[in-house]
Amino acid sequence: MGRLVVIEGLDGAGKRTLTENLTKALHNAGATVGTLAFPRYGVSVHADLVREALHRGHGDLADSVYGMGLLYALDRAGAADEIRRLLAGHDVVLLDRYVSSNAAYAAARLHQDSGGEVVKWVRELEIGRFGLPVPDAQILLRVPREVAAERAERRAREEADRARDAFESDQGLQARCGEVYDQLAAENWLSPWFVLDGANAVDTAALAGDLLK
Predict the structure, then answer these.
(1) Mean pLDDT lowest for which of 41-50, 62-71, 162-171?
(2) Domain layout of the chain by residue ranges
(3) Per-residue 3-state assignment (H helix, E strand, C coil) for the chain
(4) Engineered SS bond to 108: which of 42, 45, 67, 177, CB 3.0-4.6 Å?
(5) pLDDT tens for each residue of 112-150
């Protein structure tokens, strides 16, 4: 079985770019790599419901922290077999967002920290009840909130299908979410974490070496 590695961070942190660059570095190191990004928009009905709710569809659905958290979890539950197939066929599987994303955003929305009830609920739901594979390592791509916001705004201008949603536009939420991410990483929640400075260039060759040890 391959190693399951998750890349986490705020909207606009650069997770997609890191996934691409780290994939190249792992290939250069001789490893086979599978990738998957969450939410799986256009693939999963649960992910599509999330996107519609974040753009104010489905009434007040987006206002329900547990309702949205359940949709995110169901999207990943629907991909569990795919993740296992990728792990069986590759040395490393990189996921852009995973369970910790649900925990961080839910806690931030409820003004809780990493020790709050909603983080426990996410773990019990996704790992316990749904049986999702536990990560071998998680990477927090840490950037100042202002940098992440500027990147998200630029992405929304340049990519027609990437308009900012209700969560991305809430800077208070983003700040609180960053704090919860820091706490989860400090606690090595679910797995060991690597914390990277996303405001500067990441040495992906060195990171690939660390992940393959």
Answers:
(1) 162-171
(2) 3-212
(3) CCEEEEEECCCCCCHHHHHHHHHHHHHHCCCCEEEEECCCCCCCHHHHHHHHHHCCCCCCHHHCHHHHHHHHHHHHHHCHHHHHHHHHHCCEEEEECCHHHHHHHHHHHCCCCCCCHHHHHHHHHHHHHCCCCCCCEEEEEECCHHHHHHHHHHHHHHCCCCCCCCCCCCHHHHHHHHHHHHHHHHCCCCCCEEEEECCCCCCHHHHHHHHHC
(4) 177
(5) 999 999 999 999 999 999 999 999 999 999 988 787 768
